[in-house]
Description:
59% of the residues lie in helices and 9% in strands. With 217 residues, it is mainly alpha-helical. Helix 4 (100-113) packs parallel to helix 5 (130-140). The protein is extended, with a radius of gyration of 25 Å.
Amino acid sequence: MAKARSLCFIDDDPAELARFKKAMGNEYFVGVGTSPARALDDLKKVQGSKRVDLYVLDMYFPREGTNTSEELFKLGQAWDGFRKAETALRKVLSDLGQSLEGGLRLANEVKSRGGHTRTPFVFFTRKGNLLDAITAYEHTEALSIIKKPDPRVDFDESNRSDAYDRAMIEDKNSLIRAFDSAIHRGSFWYRHKDHIQGFISGIASSAVVWFITRWIG
């Protein structure tokens, strides 16, 4: 299939830019760079223009735009350590029978209760990771994945419950904003506003035409 779409990928790691272009270059016109301007310039070289169908952005982008090779090496080591810790956490969750499948079952149960008018839902999680969040969005129609608050300071194990109680209270306002936003996005008007506005616009246009032809024409 001939390439028809274009991507602009912005990331601080040259190796990440190169591997993305190698993987996606046969499917899309791909421009990459450590800034939007550089990615657009790169795209023009392969596409002949700067027309972009989708920007792909690095979520954790450094303030200065780039990191040194030493900094990237340090980050790589930290990431490897995080992955090992995450693997250990997921094993404990599995041993306890906790998994994404349980949340998916809850989502399907909630969705089946509404009949034709489904009540929107979000996931509220402390242990959820990026891959599970993607799965939840793509397969359950969840409106949002909201992070359960964690304590901001270290605590004694004997005070774990109190520390998490305080964290929930401290983040109360941000949680309210997240829940209110989800309720708004799940409302009938928000989900169907384009169709409703189009319908109203169509009626208004028809009325104007009728008036012109009836009384002026």
